[in-house]
Amino acid sequence: MAFAGKRLKGLIAATFTPMTSNSDINLAAIEQYVDYLVQKQHIRNIFVNGTTGEGMSLSVHERKSLAEEWVKQARGKMNNVIVHVGCLSLSDSKDLAAHAASCGADAISTVCPSFLKPSSLDALVLYLKEVASAAPSLPFYYYHIPRLTGITYQIYELLGKVKKNIPSFRGVKFSDVNLMDFSLCVSEYKEFDCLYGVDEQLLGALAFGAHGAVGSTYNYLGKKNGDMMAAFEEGNLLKARKIQCSLQEFLIFVFDMGWGLAEFKDIMSQVSGIPLGPSRLPLYSSMKFDHHDNIKTKMLKLDLI
Ligand SMILES: CC(=O)N[C@@H]([C@@H](O)[C@H](O)[C@H](O)CO)[C@@H](O)CC(=O)C(=O)O
């Protein structure tokens, strides 16, 4: 069993999927990507094929190839590779879950399908139980991202139900701003790992006892976020707040430009120097070459790089 008894904590980068200029997957860039995360950003955990990785825009075959390559390249360098297996089709998700177990992933996670949605919390639990059953030896995490899925059940209620129903269930990746629900998960279900997923307010989640965090910005701002977490743990709230505010100011700059995931991928390519390629349609980056200098200037001004 992968990490029986081991808790998932700290920063987890939700990786971008390297692509060629034609938006085909580019497995060759993954080795350099892993080394960059470990050496420059001090990141030792990755969440692959998730939102940032455009998992839902990839074929099952591509997702399997990517999972295999991430696991292969992370071996001996990273602590955990968590593979997102969420799909619209339950059988595809089960296929991906079984594949993740066979290729040596450390854990799996899934969103719930969001085209045809579960009609109740019990239906969601039944769905998650089915996915988890395809990889019973792997720790299983529910991926809550209501802004994208439209599935808005209270997660602390879900945890009460999965506790009795899914033996491999280990926690939640909580990508929502509802810190009261998050706090209830942490305080009422101490046996589960509660990983926060809204990078711009991680400090708030740490105050509520978050065990770790999964996010896109940890790819290129992992070290800075690590400094913030260390300051928080040392009780240096002033320092932690200063760093969080700089990170927020950077993200406000990005959002004010109307940018999203496709542009985040461009930012990662610029900051890391790794050519990650474009995103796959329907994502499309509106970033122009002369924006690159603005990004760098902003990051330098905020002491982020
Ligand atoms: C909607 C979205 O993409 N949220 C990101 C955040 O890391 C987000 O990019 C960040 O907080 C900036 O808004 C993560 O929660 C997603 C994530 O962890 C994933 O890619 O699976």
UniProtKB/TrEMBL annotation:
Binding-site list for pyruvate: T52, V214
UniProtKB keywords: Carbohydrate metabolism, Cytoplasm, Lyase, Schiff base
EC number(s) per entry: 4.1.3.3
Pathway(s) this gene product operates in, as recorded in its UniProt entry: Amino-sugar metabolism; N-acetylneuraminate degradation
InterPro entries linked to this entry: Aldolase_TIM, DapA-like
Compartments where found: Cytoplasm
Record-level GO BP terms: N-acetylneuraminate catabolic process
Enzyme class, spelled out: lyase
Molecular function per GO: N-acetylneuraminate lyase activity
Catalytic activities: aceneuramate = aldehydo-N-acetyl-D-mannosamine + pyruvate
Active site positions, chain numbering: Y143, K173
Subunit and partners: Homotetramer.
Family, similarity comment: Belongs to the DapA family. NanA subfamily.
Function: Catalyzes the cleavage of N-acetylneuraminic acid (sialic acid) to form pyruvate and N-acetylmannosamine via a Schiff base intermediate. It prevents sialic acids from being recycled and returning to the cell surface. Involved in the N-glycolylneuraminic acid (Neu5Gc) degradation pathway.
PANTHER family named among the record's database cross-references: DIHYDRODIPICOLINATE SYNTHASE (PTHR12128), N-ACETYLNEURAMINATE LYASE (PTHR12128:SF21)
Name recorded for this polypeptide: N-acetylneuraminate lyase
Organism: Xenopus laevis
Annotated gene: npl.L
